[in-house]
Amino acid sequence: QVQLVESGGRLVQSGGSLRLSCAVSGFTLDYQAVGWFRQAPGKEREGVSCLSGTGGKTYYADSVKGRFTISRDIAKNTVYLQLNNLKPEDTAVYYCALADLQDRTYCGSSRSDYDYWGQGTQVTVSS
User: Fold this and answer.
1) Which of 6, 47, 52, 74 can pair with 118 through a Cys bridge, CB separation 3.0 to 4.6 Å?
2) Per-residue pLDDT of the chain (127 residues; tens, 9 = 90+)
3) Which residues is 98 bridged to in the sheet?
4) Nearest CA-CA partner of 79 in 116, 112, 113
5) What is the dihedral of CA 28, 7, 3, 100, to 10 degrees?
6) By C-alpha distance, which of 96, 105, 62, 60 is closest to 77?
């Protein structure tokens, strides 16, 4: 059974930092891509970052480049998203998702490419 569990979201002041975690069970991270998405109230869910199964390819949305960093710990089967220099517009529910694809080099921001989703963790950035 595939399960993704996010944690780490909380209220933080503008300019602060957080590290989100996504614990994965049922798949090993060195075969599947994992992506981070976010959804703010009244907005579409958008792709924020992803890491390929090989670990050699990453993606960052323009709005977070230079501030967010994705990483993983294969031994713990956990993916992380480090959020630095947070802004109020980063406020959203953050979801991790796993793409069950043959292509281990895949890394993308399209929601339709991802097969399994976590329940989300709330990040709130106060000004």
Assistant:
1) 6
2) 899 999 999 999 999 999 999 999 998 888 889 999 999 999 999 999 999 999 999 999 999 999 999 999 999 999 999 999 999 999 999 999 999 988 889 999 999 999 999 999 999 999 9
3) 34, 116
4) 116
5) -50
6) 96
